[in-house]
Design brief:
Chain A: It comes from Salinadaptatus halalkaliphilus. The structure holds two protein chains of two kinds. Chain A is mainly beta. Helix content of chain A is about 5%, strand content about 40%. Chain A is built from one helix and eight strands, in the order H-E-E-E-E-E-E-E-E. The mean pLDDT of chain A is about 85. Chain B has a nine-stranded mixed beta sheet with strand order 3-2-4-7-1-8-11-10-9, with helices on both faces. The model of chain B has no long low-confidence stretch (mean pLDDT about 95). Classes of the chains: A mainly beta, B alpha/beta. Bound molecules: zinc ion.
Chain lengths: ~140, ~375
């Protein structure tokens, strides 16, 4: 190994670039692949698409027990991120949330991707997106 | 082609077995099997091949040589199966296939796990270097997300989810090999510590050491070992992932639907024919959604299904009479094998205080997630007497 595994998707992590299967419309993120997870096309043709920074919580949990180096409570969601131009399907991703209050979170809540430090790997901070409830959406 | 039959089983009491080395677990289950085959067995002569299930969490049992070392069964094919939490069931399925194919006459299936010797811990294992695919996604979180959405989408209540744990703990007090021998109430579950909202401590299976073995053979030799063989009527195995975009995978496990469809089709039985089931209840919510995935009830009605008492020991379709993973424990490589052993006993009328009256057809279901925390592998086996 010449570097940590998370460096392999650095480009996608920082720009929300995804890949759309030209056979079935499946949007792959962050994996840039040659085969399609949904339709099984192999090789599949993918086109690069830009994801929007606003998405929707499909479901979530708030984790209370994690390894010592991860802060708790840690809210975690499955988020659908639509394409920036409104076309095609959304990408479905795991996302960390900044909100920890349960009454701020529900299935269907709109969230915004914000570029943050996710953790420090001992040498440098690792930056990517975390999701927050936008101020105007907050109840 | 011959059918495959289960003709013997052996198990050790599940629990925190600090005094037992990993080899001792395997040896204990193996000896219990050898000593309990109705008409006896000469293991070194009779057993042709071994399928051995373990994730080897304790890091001292990898490769088929480990099972030979623990049991003395050398000079035979011994295959280690690793398939996340469905490891034991998949070891069984592979043995059944080899027996049906006529390549093996008598197969030993044995699974073991020494969970308490894990150096890293299961929670620690969740901290991946994958930003978008499960960094810090623990198993309680993975299953908890299904609970959150099931409650939102189908108005399933927190109490209904807790009832699964209440039922299985009650069954576990009547099952001699169960790790956790205590009863709990819905309030106990709701008031236990939050592990990963919405799941609490009593929604989660314990951390348990254990081992279990079963003997599988063909038509011709089955009566050599017992007058009451249990036929393997069907099996299925599949994988799926929520990342493929199907909303059903946010609440349920499409892989379980696929695996059970395969098993139903092979066996000629349907969900209504199942008299007793041992299903994967690593968390309370897992069993509730599995009622739906196996077709025991309609989609979204798992909560009503348990509210109505259908899966209780005295209900119309008893699920997890052994107490399930929630009470019996979940020593990963042994889990699926122990489910098979319980169905074997049920169909032979040997299940003691948890016997389901007149059970003729039984189903076993086991899923696994593994470190690719995006979906499940699922294995379903159907047995009949
Ligand atoms: Zn495709």
């Amino acid at each position: 190994m010449s570097g940590p595994r998370y460096h392999r998707t650095r480009e996608q992590d920082q720009r929300l670039v995804a890949f759309e299967c030209q056979s079935c419309g499946y949007v792959s993120f962050p994996d840039e692949k040659q085969t399609c997870k949904r339709c099984g096309d192999a090789p599949a043709t993918f086109e690069e698409v830009q994801l929007a920074e606003r998405g929707e919580i499909k479901t979530f949990v708030v984790q209370e027990y994690l390894p010592d180096d991860i802060e708790v409570p840690q809210p975690l969601a499955i988020v659908d991120l639509p394409q920036a131009d409104g076309s095609g399907e959304s990408a479905r991703v795991y996302g960390l949330l900044t909100e920890t209050e349960l009454d701020e979170l529900s299935v269907g809540t709109e969230v915004e991707a914000r570029f943050r430090e996710l953790f420090d790997d001992g040498e440098r901070p690792i930056n990517s997106f975390k999701f927050s409830v936008p101020r105007e959406v907050k109840r | 082609m011959t059918d495959a039959h289960v003709v013997g089983s052996g198990i050790i009491d599940f629990g925190e077995k600090y005094e037992w080395a990993f080899d001792d677990l395997l040896e204990g289950a193996y000896l219990d099997l050898v000593e309990s085959v109705d008409h006896g067995i000469e293991p070194t002569k009779d057993i042709d091949a071994i399928w051995y299930g373990t994730l080897d969490i304790a890091n001292e049992g990898s490769s088929g040589a480990s099972v030979a070392h623990a049991t003395g069964l050398f000079e035979k094919p011994a295959t280690q199966i690793v398939n996340a939490c469905a490891t034991g069931s998949d070891a069984f399925r592979n043995a059944v296939q080899a027996v049906k194919a006529g390549d093996v006459e008598v197969a030993l299936v044995i699974g073991a796990e020494k969970m308490l010797d894990s150096t890293e811990g299961l929670i620690g294992g969740a901290a991946l270097e994958r930003l978008w695919r499960g960094r810090g996604v623990t198993m309680p979180a993975f299953f908890g997300m299904r609970a959150t959405r099931h409650m939102d989408q189908y108005e399933t209540t927190r109490e209904q989810i807790a009832e699964v744990s209440v039922k299985n703990h009650e069954n576990g007090t009547k099952y001699p090999h169960a790790h956790q021998q205590f009863e709990c109430s819905v309030d106990d579950v709701k008031e236990s510590a939050t592990v990963s909202y919405p799941l609490n401590l009593y929604d989660c299976c314990p951390v348990t050491d254990g081992a279990c073995a079963v003997l599988v053979t063909n038509d011709e030799r089955s009566r050599e070992f017992t007058d009451a063989p249990v036929r393997v009527a069907g099996y299925g195995f599949s994988t799926d992932s929520f990342m493929r975009g199907d909303d059903l995978a946010l609440t349920n496990f499409p892989a379980s639907r696929q695996a059970s469809s395969m098993a139903y089709e092979r066996s000629g039985y349907g969900p209504d024919d199942i008299d007793v089931a041992e299903v994967h209840d690593c968390f309370s919510i897992t069993e509730l959604i599995t009622y739906e995935d196996l077709g025991f009830c309609e989609q979204g009605e798992g909560g009503t299904f348990i509210d109505d008492g259908v899966p209780h020991l005295d209900g119309e379709k008893p699920v997890n009479p052994s107490g399930g993973l929630l009470s019996k424990g979940h020593p990963i490589g042994a889990t699926g094998v122990a489910q098979i052993a319980e169905i074997f006993e049920q169909l032979r009328g040997e299940a003691g205080d948890v016997q389901v009256p007149d059970a003729e057809v039984g189903l076993q279901h086991n899923i696994g997630i593994g470190r690719n925390a995006t979906g499940a592998v699922s294995c379903v086996n159907i047995l009949e007497r």
